[in-house]
């Protein structure tokens, strides 16, 4: 009888409290959103299931939980706390990115830079809300709309906030179709939304495609060396792709490697999201500021495009500014759809992808800058 | 501490302004460099082409029968004249294998299709015992 009672007292049923139940419901919701609504399923499904795994109650001291040494989840979590998984994800992203649209229209890179203003505005807002500087930096990077970058910087600056920051970042990336279009319509006139971008003026040579990752990594990483862990693998992955001599490596980076890192990243980030950190007023503040960050990033990109048009003969469609956030290819697709809504023959997708690509580089640079400021 | 006081205490204004300027400057420089990249590459390519091109040698007696791989044949007669000149060493009767080898090593385009076309148009005629000769 005593043995039976001892066994029962070690089960999850006995050890559960209201926070476990709430987090299990949150995890189940993410799984549902990922599968039924297809909201960023590549990340939300592993994160959601990770939340479920990480919040099943267990008796501590036996190396079971993610924060206990020698547990399997703890070893897998190593890739998050050290920033390993985000670097590997960026390797795969670089191997999947085609920079030819950006190389043909280098001016659009400025829109990617302008969209990063959301990060700095959110930094100020987070400080004003009373967050510590490192926490504010981790929250601010949500404005870059880049999940791996957010996780990378948060792991360095405020590891206890990885869960809420990651979930906020990926949730807002999934909500781009709801967040961005109203802002785009509010800040642009119908005439501006109808601006047509010129067709591709020239073909990008292979030499340009080969030189760009080399020049890009040197210029960006010389400026912000703290972004080497992200931009180094990113440009390396791109060089693997465009070199044409290591197709096997490029395909592996773009498929098996990034998928493996994504699985472990999502699962362990979810498992690390415990009720005592997630169910706090801080998390509410993080979610609120995340929405602010996304909105300001979208708005600053659109407004900068309008400012550029004051000085340019050949106008840019200001909708493209919204694609300056790093959410590839979701925001590019939304910009294209909003443009098509006004004029079904206006194809903005490749131009928006140019802004999106530069947004990835811009958000990684911002992460390096914030890390060096807040070390 | 909250509000503007918190921002000032944490040096927030400086971080935000400096960070924004750094990222704008960095991407502006990168944008400028890649905008000039194709121009610089075209200059390099032009310099390389001009240093590799030898100046044309103009002589009064120009051998019009010399094969120029960069100048396509104007008509079948001109093409046949060049093929005959290239295969002059084979004699009046020759094996098509030998003719193919000469066309291949002379750099003529598509030697197999060329020989077939010459046969179909009657420029190459059978000379018995598996040999061929040029139509007079």
Compact summary:
Chain A is mostly helical and 375 residues long. Chain A is built from 21 helices and no strands. Chain B has 2 domains: 3-52; 76-134.
Strand-helix topology:
The complex is a heterodimer of chains A (375) and B (136).
Chain A: H1 2-9, H2 12-15, H3 18-36, H4 41-54, H5 72-81, H6 84-96, H7 100-104, H8 109-115, H9 117-128, H10 133-140, H11 147-157, H12 162-174, H13 176-187, H14 190-193, H15 206-223, H16 228-243, H17 247-272, H18 275-278, H19 281-311, H20 330-342, H21 349-374
Chain B: H1 3-9, H2 12-52, H3 76-86, H4 96-106, H5 111-120, E1 124-128, E2 131-134
Antiparallel strand pairs in B: 1-2
Descriptive labels:
heterodimer, A: 375 residues, mainly alpha, B: 136 residues, 2 domains, 5 helices, 2 strands
What does this structure look like?
The complex is a heterodimer of chains A (375) and B (136). With 375 residues, chain A is mainly α. Chain A has one domain (16-191, 204-374). Chain A has 21 helices and no strands. The relative contact order of chain A is 0.19. Chain B has 136 residues and is mainly alpha-helical. Chain B has two domains: 3-52; 76-134. In chain B, 59% of the residues lie in helices and 7% in strands. Chain B contains five helices and two strands; from the N terminus they run αααααββ. Chain B starts with a helix and ends with a strand. Chains A and B meet through helix 8, helix 9, helix 15 and helix 21 of A and helix 1 and helix 2 of B.
């Amino acid at each position: 009888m005593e043995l039976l009672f001892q066994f029962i007292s070690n089960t999850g049923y006995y050890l559960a409290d209201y926070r476990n139940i709430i987090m299990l419901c949150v995890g189940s919701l993410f799984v549902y959103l990922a599968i039924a609504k297809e909201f960023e399923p590549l990340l939300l499904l592993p994160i959601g299931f990770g939340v479920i795994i990480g919040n099943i109650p267990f008796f501590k001291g036996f190396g079971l939980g993610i924060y206990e040494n020698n547990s399997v989840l703890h070893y897998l979590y190593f890739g998050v706390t050290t920033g390993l998984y985000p670097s590997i994800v960026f390797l795969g992203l670089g191997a999947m990115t085609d920079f030819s649209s950006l190389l043909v229209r280098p001016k659009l890179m400025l829109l990617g830079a302008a969209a990063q203003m959301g990060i700095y505005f959110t930094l100020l807002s987070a400080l004003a809300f009373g967050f510590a500087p490192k926490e504010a930096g981790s929250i601010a990077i949500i404005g870059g709309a880049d999940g791996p970058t957010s996780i990378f910087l948060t792991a360095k600056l405020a590891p206890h906030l990885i869960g809420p920051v990651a979930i906020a970042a990926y949730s807002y990336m999934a909500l781009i179709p709801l967040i961005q279009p109203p802002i785009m319509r509010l800040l642009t006139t119908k005439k501006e939304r109808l601006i047509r971008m010129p067709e591709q003026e020239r073909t990008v040579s292979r030499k340009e495609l080969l030189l760009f990752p080399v020049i890009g990594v040197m210029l960006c990483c010389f400026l912000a060396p703290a972004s080497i862990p992200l931009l180094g693998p990113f440009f390396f992955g791109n060089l693997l792709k465009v070199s044409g001599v290591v197709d096997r490596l490029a395909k592996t980076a773009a498929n098996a490697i990034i998928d493996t890192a994504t699985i472990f990243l999502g699962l362990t980030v979810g498992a690390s999201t415990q009720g005592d950190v997630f169910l706090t007023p801080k998390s509410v503040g993080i979610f609120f500021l995340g929405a602010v960050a996304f909105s300001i990033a979208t708005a600053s990109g659109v407004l900068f495009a309008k400012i550029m048009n004051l000085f340019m003969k050949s106008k840019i469609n200001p909708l493209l500014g919204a694609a300056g956030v790093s959410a590839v290819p979701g925001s590019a697709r939304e910009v294209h759809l909003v443009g098509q809504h006004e004029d079904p023959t206006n194809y903005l997708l490749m131009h928006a992808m140019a802004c999106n690509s530069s947004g990835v580089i811009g958000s990684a640079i911002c992460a390096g800058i914030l890390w060096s400021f807040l070390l | 501490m909250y509000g503007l006081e918190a921002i000032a205490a944490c040096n927030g204004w400086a971080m935000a302004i400096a960070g924004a300027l750094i990222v704008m400057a960095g991407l502006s420089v990168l944008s400028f460099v890649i905008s000039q990249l194709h121009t610089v590459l075209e200059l390099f390519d032009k310099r390389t082409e001009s240093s590799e091109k030898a100046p044309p040698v103009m002589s009064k007696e120009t051998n019009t029968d010399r094969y120029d791989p960069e100048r396509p044949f104007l008509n079948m007669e001109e093409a046949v004249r060049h093929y005959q000149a290239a295969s002059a060493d084979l004699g009046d009767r020759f094996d098509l294998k030998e003719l193919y080898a000469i066309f291949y090593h002379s750099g003529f385009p598509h030697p197999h299709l060329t020989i077939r076309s010459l046969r179909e148009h009657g420029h190459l005629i059978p000379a018995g015992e598996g040999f061929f000769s040029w139509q007079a």
